[in-house]
Amino acid sequence: MVEAKIENYQCPSCGGPLEYDAESAKLHCPYCESNFNPEDIAIQHSQANASQSSTWDTSSINNDWGQESSNLIEYSCPSCCGTIVCDKTTAASSCPYCNNPTILETQFKGNLKPDYIIPFNIKKEKAIESLKYFYKGKPLLPKTFTSENKLKEIKGVYVPFWLFDGTALGQASFTAERTYTKSNSRKTIEITKHYECRRAGEVSFKMVPVDASVQMDDNLMDSIEPYDYSGIKSFSTGFLPGYMADIHDVNVEDCFVRAERRCTTTCIDALEDTVRGYDSVNLQNENIYLQKGKVHYSLFPVYILNTLFNDKKYTFAINGQTGKTVGELPISKAKGFMRFFISFLITLIIEVGAMALYLYSGNDMPSADDMPLVVGVGLFIALVIATCSLGIAHSKMKTIFQARDADNYINKGLKLSFSKDIFLYETERVIERREPDSKKQMGF
Q1: Least confident window among 149-158, 186-195, 322-331
Q2: How far apart are CA 18 and CA 12, in angstroms?
Q3: What predicted TM-score, i.e. pTM, was given to this entire model?
Q4: What contacts 105, CB < 8 A, 6 or more positions away?
Q5: Could you tell me which of 316, 296, 288, 270 has the C-alpha nearest to residue 209?
Q6: Is the peptide bond before 226 cis (omega within 30 degrees of 0)?
């Protein structure tokens, strides 16, 4: 008999992980409950391994620039060690990442040639307007920040990205609950039915981006997504005049984990979205296998503004194709305190007005013993509302977040291969008891 490494075997029917059943001498799928001959699965497994690579395909990445390299100039920044490329008609007067005015011109060395480029779709003036609009509606922003900010120093830079193609094949099981109530003359019961929901399927992805620049904050680049790939072009230096292009300094191998995490998370979410008709759904376990496809090298358009405020550096990025603007804004402590105080005061005034209306309606004043409790509850409610108001204002000041999924780069929707919901058990909980009617019990 062929010895099978069953821990890596997947069900041909639903893609679930196969387990060896000693009693039947078969490979059993706990998801769709199919059974298979170990020898047949071993042959299929070896054939699949021969036809599919377990690593990303980087064969399209090359450094053959041809004659195009003769029109390019390379600059390096001695301050942040950033390296950028311009065409000979574009003068680079300062580093776009740290604003260092001294950058060194050197001969272009080649490096990797991008496969694709998304050209700038908005002009610098519109990017400045987008940033001004971004400042609006930020209640805790210091007044002096916008007046001192040097908006004209915004720079257009083509940022390098690795783009990953692949397909995530996944199986997951979820615990789900459906709750309803049942009542009679004596009590109300809450009944919860518990289920196990098994799902399997696959999701294909096209060009999931991961930025390849050390100087660019990963979360900042994640936050200006998505890009519209209908505007992507084969790379040509003809798109560079007037802009700078960053040279990648993050190896493709160092980006594998980020790309794989995004694809895996999206596959799990897609499977969970198919579990419907329940009041709550929770992931119990999952098994995701990623078929790794081609990797492409591309340049994406980004407007960057670095500015100092109170000796702290703030960086803002604008998607040069869509105009989406992100960044972390400074917070005025004085405005924060004032917002908290005003929210607290308004809540207290409303509470006092409500109490006055309560007394005006003919109700009695709370007793002296109850008064401390009433005042304490009122102060607590005002404190909670003021804190929530300040928290909401704080959340508007930061728009930089790590991308955890690849929803915007799904090439094909979820192809569901298996779906089964299994009822497990039900629980009951008394949520209300009612005293029996004594008169009815006595026959009146």
Answers
A1: 149-158
A2: 9
A3: 0.76
A4: 73, 74, 75, 92
A5: 296
A6: yes
